[in-house]
Amino acid sequence: xxxxxxxxxxxxxxxxxxxxxxxxxxxxxxxxxxxxxxxxxxxxxxxxxxxxxxxxxxxxxxxxxxxxxxxxxxxxxxxxxxxxxxxxxxxxxxxxxxxxxxxxxxxxxxxxxxxxxxxxxxxxxxxxxxxxxxxxxxxxxxxxxxxxxxxxxxxxxxxxxxxxxxxxxxxxxxxxxxxxxxxxxxxxxxxxxxxxxxxxxxxxxxxxxxxxxxxxxxxxxxxxxxxxxxxxxxx
Length: 235
What we know:
By secondary structure, the protein is mainly α.
């Protein structure tokens, strides 16, 4: 391989003929990737304020490092892919389907909390804090409603669904016959809205991270000039 294969300049009359080889293009691309990696490693994450009222904690500050962001993203996906994160609609939603979704969510978030290694807990890192927040959301946010209403409603609903005289009625029509329907739905709406808000806070924690400009600023500015984001953040 000669220099002509990398970078070639030739004077032609009053102009220049510049040719850049594929080797030079690859080299520049590798430099840009390296700068991104160094900027991420050298920069500190800013503390982020998030409102975990649904978990009984209110507004707290947490450092969204890569481990925290990964846990928050996984939890957000689990919530967004289920009815649990969607506000309850009394006209169309079926209560037992909400309860089934919450049951699956309990299992998924418990398993996610288990992925935090014990060493991280002993070191006082932010990832164990988020794992504890997820468990508190389940125990303090969802469990009280389920303890009060689920068994009572399921037993009543199962009996009504099996009643031949109700065969022509939709599930929504049947559930409205529950003797304590108004009280159950009022509580269910509150919990559902709280879960929706909790899901949004997880999204912020996972997807709206910001790097501190006090560390790695020079690298970030160089990345900007080579095609980084306008605000100086590397995503």
